[in-house]
User: What shape does this take?
Amino acid sequence: QVQLFESGGGLVQAGCSLRLSCAASGGTFITAVAWFRQAPGKEREFIASIIWSDGVTYYKDFVKGRFTISRDGAKETVYLQMNSLTVEDTAVYYCAANPTSPYEYDYWGQGTQVTVSS
Assistant: This one.
């Protein structure tokens, strides 16, 4: 069984940075971890993913080099470094593990709120 716990969200001003963490238990069973976000009134959208075994990463185009996904295998933690935040980045951010299809995952965390003020 895989469990995921996000942390690191908060209220920041536009232009600032945040680093989100996704602590995973059951690491032996993890194949890949992704970050998604959902803004009020909008559909959930994929941000980035990382393959657990080799660290290969994938990004959605809108990231445009502002966000970086990484992992620490020893800590069983995946990070999302977010730079140059804008108001449009305000959303609940979720991590997810073990994809069943490109954007469908078996396990989800509870989410962490990121609010960017102008």
